[in-house]
Amino acid sequence: SQQGEEDPQALSIQEGENATMNCSYKTSINNLQWYRQNSGRGLVHLILIRSNEREKHSGRLRVTLDTSKKSSSLLITASRAADTASYFCATVGTSGAGSYQLTFGKGTKLSVIP
Amino acid sequence: NAGVTQTPKFQVLKTGQSMTLQCAQDMNHEYMSWYRQDPGMGLRLIHYSVGAGITDQGEVPNGYNVSRSTTEDFPLRLLSAAPSQTSVYFCASSYSSGPRGPYQPQHFGDGTRLSIL
């Protein structure tokens, strides 16, 4: 079963605006990862945040993690048309089979309008 | 350094046929996995391997078989293709630092688009 669930399912914004996507998960995690997928391509890793971290930055990307609420958010600032893609969160559990499996959510489809 | 290479990119099969999807990585990654991606379902884990000679089942393993005889290769076999296996298949790999598992960023191939008639 899917561990992470992204919200919203789809998001449409104007170029230059910020885009925020949320991810909720159900069980304890070792880390949470965000990926981007352009149409017809494989997934590309964006950011990994560990369970003892609260915030991480990479260029125009900012990821937060709230383990008490079992949620994470991905913020893309000053969006560009090239940011148009699907974004997925994925989690690694802390014990049992979950610690060997990276479980993905269903993704947020982001459209950035020029 | 080619990364993760999947072949073929496209394939059409008839129900009942068998085939092998190939996945190779040249990064000396211990951890490798197979996912299928269906519309509205995200990615679901089929099988994974934490090292050569070690494989295990993921969320949707039925109808698929894997082996890991070398660090580089992780083929996925469809034993008797069914229309429900029409999907896009992705292979991924990563280092396993410390605990064995997908604790590092995953590198994905570009996928195999499989249609079963």
Summarize the structure.
The complex is a heterodimer of chains A (114) and B (117). Chain A is mainly β.
Question: How large, in whole angstroms, is the Cα Rg of chain A?
Answer: 14 Å
Which two chains form the greatest contact, residue counts included?
Answer: A-B, 25 and 29 residues
Overall average pLDDT of chain A: 92
List SSEs of chain A in N-to-C order. Answer: EEEEEEEEEEE
Helices of chain B, by number, come to 0
Tally the beta strands of chain B. 11
| Separation of the first and last Cα atoms of chain A | 37 Å
Instruction: Please report the distance between the alpha carbons of the first and last residues of chain B.
Output: 36 Å
In one word, what is the shape of chain A?
A: globular
- Roughly what fraction of the amino acids of chain A lie in strands? over 45%
- Note the main sheet of chain A: 6 strands, mixed
Furnish the topology, listing elements before pairings.
The complex is a heterodimer of chains A (114) and B (117).
Chain A: E1 5-7, E2 10-14, E3 19-24, E4 29-37, E5 43-50, E6 55-58, E7 61-66, E8 71-76, E9 85-93, E10 102-104, E11 108-113
Parallel strand pairs in A: 2-11
Antiparallel strand pairs in A: 1-3, 3-8, 4-5, 4-9, 6-7, 7-8, 9-10, 9-11
Chain B: E1 4-7, E2 10-13, E3 19-25, E4 31-38, E5 42-51, E6 54-57, E7 64-66, E8 76-78, E9 87-94, E10 107-108, E11 112-116
Parallel strand pairs in B: 2-11
Antiparallel strand pairs in B: 1-3, 3-8, 4-5, 4-9, 5-6, 7-8, 9-10, 9-11
